[in-house]
Amino acid sequence: MKKFFSVLALAIVVASCNKKEENKTTTTETDTVATEIKTDRIVSLNGAVTETLAALDVAGNIVGRDVTSTFPADLKATDLGHVRSITAESILALQPSVVFGTTKDVNPNLNEQLKKANIPLVLIDQEYSIDGSKKLITEVATKLKKDNYQPLLDNISNKMANVKAFDKKPKVLFIYARGAGNLMVAGAGTPLHSMIELAGAENAAAALTDFKPLTPEALLTTNPDVILMFDKGLQSLGGVDGLLKIEGIATTNAGKNKKVVTMDGQYLSGFGPRVGDAVVELHNKLQ
Prior knowledge:
The protein is α/β, with parallel strands linked by helices.
């Protein structure tokens, strides 16, 4: 967790922008005034945005990232932690020329602090869909004044064309776990709901909205054919054997058949440039 905020580093930030070498620039909107910004020192506060920046060949310019920015694995940037805990002070310490994030992640207080410090903030309205991923890529590329993004869009389209309908849609229940004492299921409106449907399956918890606590009653009602989890989530339970000890799991079709599918969290739910690959992989694992 990071300490709370301060904007006293403004003078340092402004001074750092005055480099002798030529830097790439882009344009963002601050209120109604277009401001020219440099992209030589980027802080990214969203995993999908970070992946997009890397795919557009500016990974070397990223100096700070949030905890969801796990790809590419060799990214050399300071981990600032969870976006809801990141302070203006920790960001300013990195002397950024611009901060990228999404409207759902960056809280108003942080937004205001960065604005007072004259740090350009580019916020993307992220949507958990194929079109939403393409829109995110296009918007980030536009801000960077990059024109090499079309292959990223084409790759998503090509991968999605390979996803064929199941003869019978499997019922999939996504369980979020941080140990046996913290278990949630993903209902409608979550990125996991979208991924399950994109992969051609049915979300067993579609009647719910957002994330809800896992209960034996919910398992009895949903009776999933497959349980889907993040890799680290299943590890926190001690693997499949630990999962089957959770009340109600063993009596489901998924539990009886030990049909448990895991994927990397950011890969599965990030909806960045790799979304098409993730959908294809999930589809194949559900067969």
